[in-house]
Amino acid sequence: MIKLVGVEKTLGGQPVLRGVDLDIPAGKLTTIIGGSGGGKSVLLKHVIGLMQPDRGEVWVDGIEISRLKGRALNDVRKKFAMLFQGAALFDSLTVFENVAFPLREKLRLAETEVARRVEEKLEQVGLSGMGHKFPAELSGGMKKRVGLARALVMEPEIILFDEPTTGLDPLMANTIHDLIVGMHRTFGFTAVMVSHEIPEIFLISDWVAMLKDGKIAAMAPSADFQKTTDPAIREFISVGSMASLKS
Amino acid sequence: MLIGLIARIGHGTLFVVQEMGRMLIFLVATFAWLFRPPFRPFQILKQLHFIGFKSTFVVVLTAAFTGMVLGLQGYYTLRKFGSEAVLGSVVALSLIRELGPVLASLMVTARAGSAMTAEIGIMRITEQIDALDTMAVNSLQYLISPKLVAGLIGVPLLVAIADVVGIYGGYLIGVNLLGGNSGSYWSSIESAVEWKDVYGGILKSISFGLIVSWVCCYKGYNTRLSAEGLGAATTEAVVLSSVLILVWDYFLTSVLL
Questions:
Q1: Which of A65, A90, A97, A146 is the best mutation test for B, with the most CBs of B within 10 A?
Q2: Nearest CA of chain A to the CA of B135: how many Å?
Q3: Which residue of B has its CA nearest to A103?
Q4: What distance in Å separates the CA atoms of residue B52 and residue B54, rounded to the nearest whole number?
Q5: Chain B contacts to A (CB-CB under 8 A)
Q6: Looking at residues A170-191, what average pLDDT do you find?
Q7: How far apart, in Å, are the Cα atoms of B204 and each of B152, B160, B217, B253?
Q8: Quick check: A101 and B135 CB within 8 A?
């Protein structure tokens, strides 16, 4: 479904991606781990066409999207939704209007149907009755949940999660993880998540890939990934697990 | 040392040329998206309210005092030559040809232009623009095109208001305060102001409206992803818009005269 072939990207004279080859299985939750500033978010932005590679190809459902522009790119993006690191809610709109935004922009629905779908999604993320609030009035965790509701409301085929639990306390991080897993099981979308949350991601992911030195150093089903013998990956996992225990 | 200096000049020149190219592409792309559905009349009205209506007070204030100063200076200068009767035409022509469009546009740059850059810049930093694009909503079409149209419509309307207010400001001082002749004031305007003066003023205000919204939106859209970058973008937007307005005013005047 999603395939990256030899993707290279240099930003500000610094090579970030140095030939990423990645095959993301359809209908599964794949998590990409790696060091901070290692290019995970950049990789995610290539998948949805927010960035174009200097070299290489990005394939989505048999279409090479890295050179697409305008309407052709928008057609591919209709399959996607993305939950951003900071939720990226429109701060001039209320929670309700934020979740309703893609519905109003992309589907010609009656307002009663828009309201029904928005309320349904807000209820699923535990924010029923909060539609009138503005993003500035919400906590970090609530913003992420609104972002999740907005991502889900169009029932996309693919959802990208850019560090969905960064900056949240462990309880809220667990809540967000549970929501993502629950929604993934219910709707069966293809999920690609960038995360630092080790070891939690091994419990929720179907597949795990590690980005190291601008390349995919390893990719395996979650259970197998933890058994890796590669010393660099083992160190990353054990340090991540210890940091999680300390917090 | 000499080679280093030449290299720096070369780098600087290349940067300016590249930036000009990027700005032009941004403008063309924004215009192109303007003519594609979905059309957004409500967004245009909202921006027209922000750029136009909300700038009215500051533009009226500026125009009133400019007209009053023109009335005051004009009256005492013209009296030396016994020409107080033409005060109305001096005030009106100064405002319609030059001061109305330039001062109103500079005030719009300071009030609405800087706010546009900051608003779009914050949307860029907090990934709201990326969010629009991921939802298959073109950010140029949704965010920038309405602002460009609002600038093109709003600034000429504000300039028209500024011209009228400024002429009345000159009347207040020249006639009501200093005792000039009311009939001479209005008749000198009627005989001196021609269609080409009004046409020139409209042309200037349309092009200034485009400059303000184009430059301010571009700087916000391409802001560096930091608080410092946003501050720099806002400053650059105001300075560049103001300088371009003054430079473009000179070129247009030299062509229109």
A1: A90
A2: 6
A3: B135
A4: 6
A5: 38, 122, 126-128, 130-131, 133-138
A6: 89
A7: 11, 12, 20, 9
A8: yes
pLDDT for the residue numbered A36: 83
Q: Do residues A131 and A94 make contact, with C-beta atoms less than 8 angstroms apart?
A: yes
Residue B76, burial from CB neighbour count under 10 angstroms (0-12, 13-18, 19+):
exposed
- Interface touch A81/B138, C-beta < 8 Å: no
Q: A88 vs B138: CB contact, 8 Å cut-off?
A: no
- What pLDDT sits at residue A229? 78
* ipTM for the whole predicted complex goes beyond 0.95: no
Per this entry, what is the length of chain A? 247
Q: Per-residue pLDDT tens for B31-73?
A: 999 998 888 999 999 999 999 999 999 999 999 999 999 999 9
Domains of chain A, residue spans: 1-79+192-247
Check B131 against A45: CB less than 8 A apart. no
Task: Point out the residue among B38, B127, B137 whose CB comes nearest to the CB of A88.
Answer: B127
This prediction has a pTM of 0.89
Residues from chain B that touch A107, judged by Cβ atoms under 8 A, are none
| pLDDT at residue B148 is higher than 60 | yes
Q: Which band of pLDDT confidence, cut at 50, 70 and 90, is reported for residue A240?
A: low
Architecture of domain A1-79+192-247: 3-Layer(aba) Sandwich (3.40)
Mean pLDDT of A185-210: 90
Chain B CB contacts of A80 under 8 Å are 134
DSSP A93: S
Distance CA B72, CA B66 (A): 10
pLDDT of residue A176: 87
